[in-house]
Specification:
Radius of gyration: 21 Å
Number of helices: 12
Number of strands: 17
Shape: globular
Helix content: 25-40%
Bound molecules: D-malate
Distance between the termini: 58 Å
Strand order of the largest sheet: 2-10-9-8-7-3-6
Largest sheet: 7 strands, mixed
Structural class: alpha/beta
Oligomer: single chain
């Protein structure tokens, strides 16, 4: 009999969004007549920008011609996309990132899950709480999180993000090796300023730890004093990896394209304490385990880096942010404590009537046919909270908020 990775047996339940989906399917099967409105998983509903569709058609035709056909993509990604990312996402903001520090991939989810493989099994990991569950689960699968008891992993260092600190994590008091950060934040929708991010960069430099910075929602930032990239902050190149995605920007959740920046100036240590380049390690990992994002997809992604492409992306983002406003204002009107939705497409609310997260999930689903995501699924400090996404269509958002109004306004 083959022996399996024992850490999987320690994992509680299923992946958060799989569990939500399972419960919704069970409810729909029991109530086939009910129209369910989904504001749970942050999945986009707007079609791809027109520039991306045109690029997809053109690239598909290229694949039909022996003269332009493309086989395996370059391991790190095509230059046309890497250079466009460098110019539009970094050079334009005065953030120093070199082309050979950008790795194209198929999703920030995969990269944030895979990066932990590069670190030793006894690395101490800190996560904001609540947090995108992929960071926690991927470390737990590798045995780095310890044992799951009373809704907590024994070896993880939790950084509570609660109403009292404005849902903003504070640097750990104990020594940690890796710190995951996500801004604009999923799930709370919180965003920090450049000065606040500088505190983290300085902390990482002073304490010899590495920041794993997920900026997948950066396009949603509206505040002027907020960083779009961690490399806008002085000193970040020595202590931070950044993950970005086309999913929420250009609607690529079903198409899959992202990038990760691993600066060459970022050094980690081997077992003997010698400096090692994390860029070399990530390159080795990706070229061994990943065969690259398809040519046609990289062409579609690159299409957003033109004035017209940027305009179309802004229109999609603006559409979702109008949804966010509708949801937030409805909740505030109803006297529900709600935040987020200003620099992020998520609204984080305190469950009314003192309900816990999963009870409110059931209450909202059975009473209004509206699906959201229970805050408890994002970590212990998420208990009693709930997340709604702005990624629905306008029709669904309006109908859902109307039903919420009827249910909670009673
Ligand atoms: C979410 O709902 O948190 C995200 O859509 C999940 C993801 O991006 O993988």
């Amino acid at each position: 009999m083959n022996k399996v990775n024992p850490n999987y047996a320690l994992m509680p339940g299923s992946y958060l969004f799989a569990e939500v989906s399972r419960r919704v399917s069970a409810f729909q099967a029991a109530h086939p007549e009910k129209k369910i409105l989904k504001l749970g998983i942050g999945d986009v509903t707007r079609p791809l920008p027109k520039v991306c569709i045109e690029a997809l058609h053109k690239a598909t035709d290229e694949m039909a011609d022996p003269a332009t056909f493309q086989g395996y993509p370059p391991a790190q990604g095509y230059d046309f996309l890497i250079n466009a990312i460098k110019e539009y996402e970094y050079d334009a903001r005065g953030a120093k990132v070199e082309a050979d520090e950008i790795f194209i991939s198929d999703g920030a989810k995969s990269d944030t899950a895979n990066i932990q493989e590069l670190f030793s099994g006894d690395a101490v990991v800190a996560v904001p709480d609540p947090v995108y569950p992929v960071y926690v689960d991927s470390n737990a699968m590798s045995g780095r999180a310890g044992i799951y008891e009373n809704e907590r992993w024994s070896k993880l260092v939790y950084l509570p993000c609660v109403a009292e600190n404005g849902f903003m994590p504070e640097p750990p008091k104990e020594k940690v090796d890796l710190i995951y950060l996500c801004f604009p934040n999923n799930p709370t929708g919180a965003m920090l300023t450049r000065d606040q991010l500088k505190v983290w960069v300085d902390y990482a430099r002073e304490n010899g730890c590495l920041l794993l910075y997920d900026a997948a929602y950066r396009q949603y930032i509206t505040r002027e004093d907020a960083p779009r990239s961690i490399y806008e902050i002085e000193g970040a190149r020595e202590v931070a990896v950044e993950f970005c995605s086309f999913s929420k920007t250009a609607g690529f959740t079903g198409v899959r394209c992202s990038w990760t920046v691993v600066p060459k100036s970022l050094k980690v240590q081997d077992a003997a304490g010698n400096p090692v380049s994390l860029n070399d390690m990530w390159s080795r990992r990706q070229s061994t385990k990943y065969n690259g994002t398809a040519y046609i997809i990289q062409r579609a992604a690159a299409a957003i880096y033109t004035p017209e492409g940027q305009k179309q992306v802004r229109e999609n983002v603006g559409y979702y942010m109008e949804n966010a406003k509708i949801i937030r204002e409805t909740l505030v009107e109803l006297g529900v404590e709600a935040s987020g939705g200003v620099d992020a497409p998520y609204i984080w609310l305190k469950c009314p009537k003192g309900m816990d997260s999963w009870s409110f999930f059931d209450y909202l689903l059975s009473g209004a046919g509206v699906v959201g995501t229970p805050g408890a699924g994002f970590g212990p400090s998420g208990e009693g909270y709930f997340r709604l996404t702005a990624f629905g269509s306008r029709e669904v958002t309006l109908e859902a908020t109307q039903r919420i109004r009827e249910l909670l306004g009673k």
